[in-house]
Design the sequence.
């Protein structure tokens, strides 16, 4: 008897919990989407100019911020946006990772009107699953300025479209310049020992050896994130990181099986062997990397352009001569190309929930961010408060901001979610002379932007399974080749094994997806 | 019937009250999430939810069994778990037996406290300590090796060393903590047995073999069965923090694979299929260990 009663009670409990949860799930999403679509069709479309929507709105927004500039609802940028559009943003900022928060929010069926994403792939995924509004359906009605923007940046739009030609994310443009990755070197150390900037990888090898002789405890070339940096090195060797489009041959190729890729690996292998790269470089994280650079144990590195000011500002307090600055990219060989990978991409963007009850208002708000006026507003702020005009259409910050982070922290300008179209001049205006020079020099050494084909959900499944297997195999073997724990004689075996795993299958998927994108692009 | 139930309920109502938080915990966090395993048979659409996603049968299980990594992942997970059991299981028993022989109370308490402290250090800290100590450029271990005139060893890039490093660090971290259970079992042995043995002239060694060990055998067996069940259930975060591509060959295990495909690639259905598989293997292990133990001895978990 006791057992049966207990059994009944627990069964009942389970049933209650189960049905309770599924009910709320279903209810939430079904109701939401009905209302959302209802409004989209019945509300009379407002006139196309932004100025008519002065009436007050509150739009909920899942945003994100970084510890160096935690979100603040008092930021000037929100006040300015409210003045212009009448929109108050009801912002939630997740305490953990944005991707986890997005997954949870979408799964809960209770989505805010807008959500920020840092990866356009995520927008494609959620969009394919029905959680997001296809922006293209609203372009004619609500988005006149975004339509102009689309004409201006066709590649950006193309890269954001899904395989079936839908747009689920408002892309960001302008802040990408800060994502440029370049070679950085300690100019003060080079000048002190009268060393020349290396023009090729052979010269790089020689200069690293010299530095190692001068500073035996150092690892002259140190970078973080292990093999990720092959992406930045590869263009000088006329190859790529993984799958890449060869603009000379007009075809998709898989880099890690190419002879040029092998040359790159051999250089790194020699560097590790001779102690020019730290032996544990695979596990060097940001913190360790910063320690090594700031304790004068590395003199060349590859990283974001903004690291010039980051290191110089803090290091000059104790060593006024400290000068980490732009170094021209060394070519793979004499007469070869000297290029960095094109990393000036900002993948973040704003997604609109399909369950939102005010899609048209959200669209009109976002459209303002794509006007010239809106672009200036979110880049420079308010005339007289944050900037002044200095003629020739040029502007200068006046708020006494030390650097970009300081501006972000004090005004919210250039933070996530406060802009979609940004004027990079505002970033450069805050840079030190060295960083400004670097911004000017960087475009000379940058490779062409790689196309980014959109895959169908079935293709994504293959990429995340077979593609992952291939990549794990590549990563494992390249690590061993570079560390010297695997003989270079095994290279051919490695190439054969990669092909056995199905590189050609993935490669032809890239080709198909790329051509599909070109066709849909020309059809529009 | 009903009367006896009411009486029994009244007798133990406070015990039942104490039991409630535990029951709620298990229902909420252990049993209820189990319904989630159905996403491994579905093409999980995060927006439509678990119920409305389309069924795909064993698609993801087949994909996993046919994957090139399947055998390697299973082998790595199993071997790592086996070594952990082989070396990690006897260690706390030995420690408890040794502590039991220590007569000086203060020294015994001191050793006991020190030895279980590492259990409270988070895995993140433990792993960064390991990486720092073993660093080929600045680690203390390599400085010692070099002081003896030998070449430094790049520990974290040698696949053959990974299992040893992992198991040793696990032993260091958890031995002291796990010894507490055995010490408790030891204290419940009747002192009269020792007195009688002394009368018969038994040495300390003999007493250990014939009284102490048999006294804690039931605890050992129960813990052993539970441990076997978790052979495949290796602390994910520690391996994840510790490994790098150069040692994938021995360090990539089921749970790190699940993390990379599930959370890294957003392939929830595939990842949960792998996880369900791990769970089933664990269940088979624990069930067989239990039935063997029931046949051979009289102690078992159920």
Sequence:
């Amino acid at each position: 008897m006791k057992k049966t009663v207990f059994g009944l009670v627990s069964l009942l409990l389970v049933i209650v919990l189960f049905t309770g949860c599924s009910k709320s799930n279903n209810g939430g999403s079904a109701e939401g989407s009905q209302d959302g679509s209802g409004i989209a069709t019945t509300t009379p479309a407002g006139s196309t100019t932004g100025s008519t929507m002065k009436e007050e709105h509150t739009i909920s927004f899942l945003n994100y911020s970084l510890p160096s500039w935690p979100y603040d609802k008092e930021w000037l940028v929100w006040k300015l946006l409210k003045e212009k559009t009448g929109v108050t943003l009801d912002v939630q900022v997740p305490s953990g990772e944005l991707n986890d928060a997005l997954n949870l929010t979408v799964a809960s069926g209770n989505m805010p009107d807008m959500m920020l994403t840092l990866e356009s792939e995520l927008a494609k995924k959620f969009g394919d699953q029905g959680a997001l509004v296809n922006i293209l359906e609203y372009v004619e009605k609500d988005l006149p300025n975004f339509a102009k923007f689309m004409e201006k940046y066709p590649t950006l739009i193309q890269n954001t479209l899904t395989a079936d030609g839908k747009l689920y994310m408002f892309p960001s443009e302008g802040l990408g310049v800060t994502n440029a990755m370049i070679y950085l070197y300690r100019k003060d150390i080079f000048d002190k020992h009268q060393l020349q900037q290396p023009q090729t990888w052979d010269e790089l090898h020689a200069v690293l050896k010299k530095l190692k002789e001068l500073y035996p405890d150092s690892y002259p070339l140190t970078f973080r994130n292990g093999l990720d940096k092959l992406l930045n090195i590869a263009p000088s060797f006329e190859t790529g990181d993984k799958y890449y489009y060869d603009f000379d041959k007009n075809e998709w190729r898989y880099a890690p099986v190419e002879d040029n890729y092998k040359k790159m690996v051999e250089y790194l292998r020699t560097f590790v062997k001779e102690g020019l790269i730290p032996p544990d470089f695979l596990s060097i994280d940001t913190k360790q990397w910063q320690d090594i650079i700031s304790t004068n144990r590395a003199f060349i590195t590859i990283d974001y352009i903004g690291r010039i000011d980051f290191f110089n500002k803090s290091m000059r307090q104790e060593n006024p001569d400290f000068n980490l600055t732009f170094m021209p990219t060394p070519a793979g060989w004499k007469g070869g190309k000297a290029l960095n990978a094109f990393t000036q991409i900002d993948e973040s963007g704003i997604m609109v929930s399909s369950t939102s009850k005010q899609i048209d208002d959200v669209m009109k708000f976002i459209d303002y961010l794509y006007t010239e006026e809106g672009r200036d507003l979110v880049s420079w702020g308010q005339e007289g408060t944050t900037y002044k005009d200095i003629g020739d259409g040029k502007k200068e910050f006046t708020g006494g901001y030390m650097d970009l982070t300081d501006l972000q922290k004090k005004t919210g300008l250039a933070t996530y979610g406060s802009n979609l179209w940004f004027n990079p001049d505002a970033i450069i205006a805050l840079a030190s002379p060295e960083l400004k020079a670097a911004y000017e020099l960087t475009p000379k050494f940058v490779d062409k932007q790689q196309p980014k084909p959109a895959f169908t959900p079935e293709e994504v499944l293959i990429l995340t399974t077979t593609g992952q297997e291939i990549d794990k195999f590549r990563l494992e073997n390249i690590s061993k080749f570079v560390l010297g724990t695997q003989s270079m004689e095994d290279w051919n075996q490695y190439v054969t094994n990669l092909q056995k795993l199905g590189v050609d299958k993935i490669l032809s998927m890239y080709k198909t997806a790329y051509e599909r994108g070109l066709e849909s692009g020309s059809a529009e | 019937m009903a009367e006896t139930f009411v009486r029994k309920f009244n007798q133990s109502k406070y015990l039942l009250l104490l039991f409630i938080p535990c029951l709620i915990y298990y229902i909420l966090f252990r049993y209820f999430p189990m319904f989630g395993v159905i996403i491994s048979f579905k093409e999980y659409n995060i927006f439509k939810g678990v119920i409305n996603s389309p069924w795909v049968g064993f698609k993801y299980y087949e994909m996993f069994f046919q994957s090139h990594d399947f055998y390697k992942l299973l082998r790595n997970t199993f071997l790592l778990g086996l070594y952990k059991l082989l070396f990690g299981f006897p260690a706390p028993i030995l420690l408890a037996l040794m502590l039991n022989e220590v007569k000086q109370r203060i020294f015994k308490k001191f050793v006991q406290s020190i030895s279980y402290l590492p259990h409270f250090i988070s895995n993140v800290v433990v792993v960064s300590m390991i990486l720092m100590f073993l660093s080929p450029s600045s680690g203390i271990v390599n400085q010692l090796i070099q002081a003896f005139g030998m070449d430094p060893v790049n520990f974290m890039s040698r696949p053959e060393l990974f299992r040893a490093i992992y198991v040793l660090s696990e032993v260091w971290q958890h031995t002291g903590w796990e010894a507490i259970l055995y010490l408790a079992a030891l204290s419940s042995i009747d002192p009269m047995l020792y007195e009688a043995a002394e009368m018969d002239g038994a040495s300390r060694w003999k007493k250990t073999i014939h009284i102490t060990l048999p006294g804690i055998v039931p605890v050992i067996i129960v813990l052993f069965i539970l441990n076997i069940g978790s052979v495949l259930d290796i602390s994910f975060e520690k391996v994840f923090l510790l490994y790098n591509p150069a040692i994938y060959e021995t360090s990539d295990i089921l749970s790190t694979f699940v993390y990379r495909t599930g959370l890294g690639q957003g392939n929830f259905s595939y990842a949960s299929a792998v996880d369900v598989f791990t769970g089933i293997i664990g269940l088979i292990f624990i069930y067989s260990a239990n039935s063997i133990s029931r046949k051979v001895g009289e102690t078992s978990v159920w």
